[in-house]
Amino acid sequence: MKNKSLKHTFEKYIHLSVLIFVVSNLIFTRSFVGLEIFGFRLGEYIVLIGFLHLTFLSIKFLKFKKSSEYILFSYIYFYFLLQVLFTGAEFLNSYVYKAASFIGMISFYFIGLKFPQKYLNSNRLYKSLFLLIPTIYMFGSSKYPKFISDFFTQYSDKFEYIKASDVLMALVIVVFIYNNSGKDNLVYIATFVFIPLFLPILLYLSRGSFVALLVFLILEISALRKQLILNKVKTLIFTFVAVIIFIVSTFNIYGNLSFEKNNPLLNEELKITQNQVLQENLEDLLSRRNYIGVIFSLYFDDGVLKSTDGTLNWRLDIWQDLLKDQNQKNKLIFGYGYNEILPVMADPSEPGRWGGDGLNENIHNYFLNIFARGGVPLFLLFIFLHVSFLTKWRKRNKNLRLLNFIAPLLIASFFDVSMEGVQFPFNYYFFIGTFLAKKN
User: Fold this and answer.
1) Would you list the domain boundaries of the chain?
2) Residue 37, strand partner residues
3) By CB neighbour count within 10 A (0-12 exposed, 13-18 middle, 19+ buried), where does 234 fall?
4) Distance CA 385, CA 112 (A)
5) Which CB contacts under 8 angstroms, 24+ apart, belong to 3-9?
6) What is the pTM of this model?
7) How many other C-beta atoms can be found within 10 angstroms of the C-beta atom of residue 398?
8) What Å distances lie between residue 387 and 1, 245, 393, 400, 406, CA to CA?
9) pLDDT tens-digit profile of 359-390?
10) Could you tell me if residue 246 is left (phi over 0), alpha (psi between -120 and 50 degrees) or otherwise beta?
11) Among 208, 123, 122, 124, which residue's Cα sits nearest to residue 165?
12) What is the distance, to the nearest Å, from the Cα of residue 197 to the centroid of all Cα atoms in its chain?
């Protein structure tokens, strides 16, 4: 009896620790996972745990072969091992796991799947999430308390303001939980208060994340349409409230209602971000472009897809060079592997791709990164993995509502390095697990 009580107490503290970690991850993002412990960053420990967990799951699959739950996860892991072997990489080389971190992070799905639902269905959680919104809004507006920034400056490898993709992540999680709570008032607050509040921030910081949030809003309204139509008066009132909140938030973020970027704090943050990606020869690219035939900022110049938007043009330049290089080196089928930085990012003729600090090696596209590292087999395995999430949700809930959570976050990751980090994929897979553990 005593042992049972001790076990219960131990599990309680473990679950509480996981919950605290998740919340800290959502609020402090990159700065949090950069905390140094015994000479290593917290994020490095997380990636290590992810790979160890994936190893355990794959061994379990080989031993029992009863649960289809582990099949795709195991196939992804075994394919990774084969790539390491056939490309001559060293299993003890830490860069291999850094380059393949997007693989190790998928195992946190099972942490979410096994996480007790009582922690995710309580009124206490709903109240806590309500407090998370103004916190993320303040941090997303670059209004960071000095004592917190000082702490991370001292104890983390870097202090970084919360990025647009991480703002999107926190918002989508909160709104999705509220809108699936079955509580009418929470649904209206999440949809008509929280989303309009954050639209101006994401529009200011990242058009990719802004579009992702718009897609999320459209999907949620579509899913809630019967409820919204049934309560016409309430919907009309909240729609008016949403417009007011959007206007007030726009003025707060922009300092005007003409969407001119005059916010000095956010401009400084954008300047830092752009310095990490914009290259010196970008000015040359922009000066030589032909504006004839521009559609949604996109146009073709001598058969090359380009954009009138500087940062998007930078990305398009990398992506097309990547695919061209893969084709020339016969890497389209099985990819480059994980030995070293992708060649397109180490091209000496394109020094701007390294970023202002010379450390950038990300191609800013989750899907192309998977394809570049693992080729066609790995790309298909990840597609099947996400389809399996939707299939499992549909079997349990008779709808595809989980797509509302997955789609906007993957859209944002199409233009960002979010999935090559730690905090974003951890939150992504953990919460997919928690959502699939619950039957609505």
Assistant:
1) 2-279+352-437
2) 40
3) middle
4) 16
5) none
6) 0.90
7) 9
8) 44, 36, 10, 11, 10
9) 678 888 999 999 999 999 999 999 999 999 99
10) alpha
11) 208
12) 20
